[in-house]
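Slide 14.
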Amino acid sequence: MLVVSNKKHRKDTERFTPYISRAADDDVEAWEKSGADTSRTSKGALTVLEPDRTVYEKFHRGEGVTTP
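Slide 15: predicted structure.
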């Protein structure tokens, strides 16, 4: 599990990371118990904590993000 955020959100990132990590573990456990084919699933997870929707959308579209 990799959690990414801007430096100014460091405290929030530190606070939320344990919950995000646990949720990812719970998802993997549920998939494994369901018997679903997980051969094509990612072996890791990335979470980006970004409150600015425009930056968030650019990041997920692969447009990159520049900082001033």
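Speaker note: The first helix runs from residue 10 to 34.
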